[in-house]
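User: Structure tokens for this complex, please. No commentary.
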Amino acid sequence: MAGTIVADTLTHSTAGSLTTDYVVNGSSKVWAATEYSSGTPVISDSLSVSSVSDDDTGEMTFSLSSALSSANFSITTGPFGGTGAGNMTNITWFDRTTSAYSILTVDNGTREDRETCTTVMGDLA
Amino acid sequence: MSTIIADNLTGKTAAGNVTVTSEGGAATFQLQQGLAKAWVVYEFSSGITTFDSFSVSSMTDAGTGLATVNFTNSYGNAHYAMAGCSSGGTGNSLFNIIQNSGSSKTTSACPMLSKLMTDASTNGAPHDISAGDGEHLVFHGDLA
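Assistant:
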């Protein structure tokens, strides 16, 4: 049988104390790394992502395993690209609900299918 | 109010799985997977200057705008998620940081590329960014 500890503070012997709201609020609720296979985005590894859909060139939508409590969660991104001048990849989010978020990958001003990393911080329902 | 005094948290049923109840109480999530496994703040200044970090053993200067983050603890696979932000001023210059596709991302190191976008001639060129605190990175994924 698994045990449950109910506590407000965690104290390490040397590193100090942390109230557990930092653990609950400060943990990433979703993260995902994707790559493309035959023109379709696939999840390389993830937390709390049930699926990813191929919406258009450079566009994909992540469906979440657990819903967030509001759609005002934070999305941060990790683009992928090379050293050539003009080779500038950016990722922007353009839609989010409590159960999904959508991103667009642009390389030098043009939609492109690129590897992506995204991380979500927010409150679960 | 209660306090747990401990140096280690380990799951009872599975050592690597401590479950945390969500803010709203309707869900649970795995503590280990949600924690950032590494972060670092650095800039290019006579090589690379690291201002602060967590679980980063060293930074390697791999050329103009190129830095390799070497992790203290290796990941279980190379598909961990990186998120980053460059600092900069209010002028027309825009700095950006991306994962360098020209070098392999491994379980123990992640190649990064800093770029400067100012005009057509230098748009997206590798650049040793030293404005402000430079580059901010955070990594999520599964440790080995």
